[in-house]
Amino acid sequence: MKKCPYRILIAVMIFMSAAMNYAYRVYFQISFIAMLDRNETLKEGEKQPDYGPRFKYSHWEEGMIIGAYFYGQTLSSIPGGPIAEQVGPWITMLISALINASLTLIAIFVTSENWVPLFICRFFIGISSGVQYPSMQFLIGTWSPPLEKGKFTACLMGNVFGSVAATAITGALVRWLGWKSSFYGMILVTLIFCTFWFLLISDYPTNSWWCSKEESAYIMASHEGRITHGKVIPPFLKMATSIPYIALIIGQFGSLWGLNLIVTSMPKFMAEVLQFELQKVGFLSALPSLARLIMGFVFGTTTDLLLRKNIIKNKAIVRKGFVLFSHFLPGATLFCYTVVGTSPALAVSFLVIMLGFNGAAVVTMLVNAQDLAPNFAGTLYGIMNCFGSTPGFIIPAINSKILEKGSSWPQWTTIFCIGGCVYISTGIIFIIAGSTKLQPWNEKKMKAEDATPAVT
């Protein structure tokens, strides 16, 4: 068929959706450093830069505020999948983004020495954001032909672009205009995103105003009956007892442990241990995420080519073989922190290598829900993202305990070694118990008159 570029635009919007989701996580970590009163840790004669009002929170309160987003996201990730499948990803994502912008505006005015209002705002932003990734998985399932799954799923690496942009831009904004400017910046970017989402996105190719009938027919026919239009209650019991799916959840937990370690902890590590200035923290902590973004597309394109050319005929070899890159090598890299000493150059280099390898998660963890049950990919991803989000608040809690008596190199090597153990152990479980076979519970059981096969 004549190639039509509209699904490329859908992929770009999925990329930007993931970027927005992670920007809401990351910009706050940078801004939060500038919001804290650190007078007690300054050397004699030093003064804190004037980035706006500063607040004195205990280490426990800091951990709670940082983890608030992840508490909320964990709660909403499981219902997020059914919501996206029942209501549709177009309206789900739109409402979620507008709620996030509203709560960010409220946070500017309620933040004070009392940590609770800021915690509540971040908590509900997390709840709102929990429905976003299931919506993206829904769109990947309905818009991507099977042999383009790798490239489409690589668009979820937009989260890395969001991390890179948010850390770099927030660091500069805070330094020039104060921490409130980063909040206003997020609100503005969200409103621009919502405008494009409203105009360009539809739940199915057949519903799109812009997609040609030729391309729509090609996409729908390529699904070969694996996807059925219609609203049913997901088979939660069968999902909960599916060994391949449980292995996927565990593997996703391990992959996101490493990513959340970077998101929640790296600004603090770079500022307090490596002694980088805030502006450099924003730039340097973005480098590992940038490596993940680039390598995610490299791995996604490579595996699509391997499968399309029949160089590798078995998808299971791809999914499990590339765990070497998504889990084992990142885990080994984290263990290297026990021997690199306090060299800032080596420390940053190992972070870049670690997340660069983890870009392979697009062809191991992120796409596997589409293999198992594309009809319920949103629900599957919501559940696995629920468990995968827990490191977002587990890590700050562990870190606050480890760093209770000081934030120095020995304490941080302990934190990195824990991450290495999680990476490797979860990767082993996925290799042993994971699968790429279409699960029998993928079938939507509904009345015949209500079902619309994904072939036109």
TrEMBL record:
The chain crosses the membrane at residues 6-28, 87-109, 115-133, 154-177, 183-201, 243-263, 322-340, 346-367, 379-399, 411-436. The keyword Transmembrane helix applies. GO terms for cellular component: membrane. Residues 23-437 form the Major facilitator superfamily (MFS) profile domain. It is found in: Membrane. GO terms for molecular function: symporter activity. It is a multi-pass membrane protein. It holds the Pfam family MFS_1. Its main location: membrane. It comes from the Eukaryota. Gene3D superfamilies: MFS general substrate transporter like domains. SUPFAM superfamilies: MFS general substrate transporter. Keywords: Membrane, Symport, Transmembrane, Transmembrane helix, Transport. The keyword Lipid metabolism does not apply. InterPro entries: MFS, MFS_dom, MFS_Na/Anion_cotransporter, MFS_trans_sf. This is Major facilitator superfamily (MFS) profile domain-containing protein. It comes from Cryptolaemus montrouzieri.
